[in-house]
């Protein structure tokens, strides 16, 4: 199909619902969801599936980069469609995710963050301040704008994330402040677009893992406070839910006095966070309490796979935040993705016979061509074939 003119493209973008505007620093109804760890055993689809089918989600945190000194990217079952870099065997090379990031940003208006560390991170920070600065520069070269002449491996090719999220669980973290400060400096110095920095502390204050850089030295844009798995969480509202403590942090301690605080909560009663799943009235009450604070930025959910197995829960949260849920948009009439460099043509992903005939169609590489409920085109452009990846997703590969 012919590409859309710039004017026509602007016209189509103007029809997108406001829920697809990505992160809004001036809003109190942002919704942030983690993706990449296939939480529980409910099954995890590819990133672009959720971008298309969750118009009310503003930010998706890709999780996790679990090794920084010894490069290690863990995306659970998503890694089946990735290969390894020869110089870094635990670092995934994921052209499918690269294409999805661009589609999520350009077609669905999502803010895509790269989440670092996670619960399995065990390096305990950096040996020195200079080592922390060097590590931040390497992470920026891996996921930020492409740097001409830089040979640092890029897991997502030419795709550029919108910022970084810190999810630290280890109480011993050395030289994290210079690491965070250098990343923030690099992002501020680049004017190609707005970049963000967020963190995911536990709700007990001060969080033992994050206090070194949340103590007013680094300007975070928002914090996804984990108000679960702790006695100060949403499931303990109204008696012990410590929203006021984090509201005070944002207004008096944070280096960014406009920083937002999000209420983090499990996305389903099942999974590892079952004991922290709040009742509907507890969640509504906590959100209503927080809405009275200028620091309130919305809700964070763990995680996407759990959320999509809990029918109606996202709509409930949207309603609690004061909005109305948006239906998933139909597939766009044509999709033009930015060129993504693929460093390997090998694939370890699942294969099967295509749902319908192979070549000569309209769906480009990595585009959706099948799946339960899908009604779009099924013919792949040559030489690609439609490959079944799950009940919900087939793509041209």
From TrEMBL:
* Pfam families per UniProt: CBM_1, Glyco_hydro_18
Enzyme Commission numbers on file: 3.2.1.14
Output the InterPro entries linked to this UniProt entry: CBD, CBD_sf, GH, Glyco_hydro18_cat, Glyco_hydro_18_chit_AS, Glycosyl_Hydrlase18_Chitinase
What is the top EC class of this enzyme, as a single word? hydrolase
Q: What positions does the domain CBM1 occupy?
A: 361-397
Record keywords: Transcription regulation included?
no
Q: What keywords are assigned to this protein? A: Carbohydrate metabolism, Chitin degradation, Chitin-binding, Glycosidase, Hydrolase, Polysaccharide degradation, Secreted, Signal, Virulence
Name the protein family.
Answer: Belongs to the glycosyl hydrolase 18 family.
Descriptive protein name = chitinase
Native organism: Hypocrea virens (strain Gv29-8 / FGSC 10586) (Gliocladium virens)
């Amino acid at each position: 199909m012919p590409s859309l003119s710039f004017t026509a493209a602007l016209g189509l973008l103007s029809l997108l619902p406001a829920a697809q505007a990505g992160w809004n620093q001036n809003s109190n109804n942002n919704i942030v969801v983690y993706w990449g760890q296939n939480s529980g055993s409910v099954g995890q689809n590819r990133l672009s599936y959720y971008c298309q089918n969750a118009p009310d989600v503003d930010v998706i945190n890709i999780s996790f980069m679990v090794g920084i000194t010894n490069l290690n990217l863990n995306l659970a079952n998503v890694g089946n469609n990735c290969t390894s870099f020869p110089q870094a065997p635990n670092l995934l090379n994921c052209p499918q995710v690269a294409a999805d990031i661009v589609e999520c940003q350009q077609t669905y208006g999502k803010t895509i963050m790269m989440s670092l560390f996670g619960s399995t991170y065990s390096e305990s920070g950096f040996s020195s301040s200079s080592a922390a600065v060097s590590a931040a520069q390497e992470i920026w070269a891996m996921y930020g704008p492409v740097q001409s002449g830089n040979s640092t491996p890029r897991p997502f090719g030419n795709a550029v994330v919108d910022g970084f999220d810190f999810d630290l669980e280890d109480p011993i973290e050395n030289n994290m402040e210079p690491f965070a400060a250098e990343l923030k400096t690099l992002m501020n110095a680049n004017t190609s677009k707005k970049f963000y920095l967020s963190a995911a502390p536990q709700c007990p204050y001060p969080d033992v893992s994050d206090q070194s850089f949340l103590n007013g030295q680094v300007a975070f844009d928002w914090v996804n406070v984990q108000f679960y798995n702790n006695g100060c969480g949403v499931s303990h509202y109204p008696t012990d839910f410590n929203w006021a403590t984090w509201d005070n942090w944002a207004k008096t301690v944070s280096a960014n006095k406009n920083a937002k605080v999000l209420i983090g909560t499990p996305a389903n009663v099942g999974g590892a966070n079952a004991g922290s799943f709040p009742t509907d009235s507890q969640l509504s009450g906590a959100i209503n309490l927080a809405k009275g604070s200028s620091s309130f930025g919305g809700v964070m959910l763990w995680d996407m796979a759990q959320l999509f197995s809990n029918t109606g829960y996202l709509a409930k949260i949207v309603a609690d935040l004061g909005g109305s849920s948006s239906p998933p948009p139909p597939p766009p009439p044509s999709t033009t993705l930015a060129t993504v460099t693929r460093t390997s043509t090998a694939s370890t992903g699942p294969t099967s016979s295509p749902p319908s005939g192979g070549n000569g169609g309209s769906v480009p590489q990595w585009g959706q061509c099948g799946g339960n409920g899908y009604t779009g085109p099924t013919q792949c452009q040559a030489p690609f074939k439609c490959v079944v990846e799950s009940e919900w997703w087939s793509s041209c590969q």
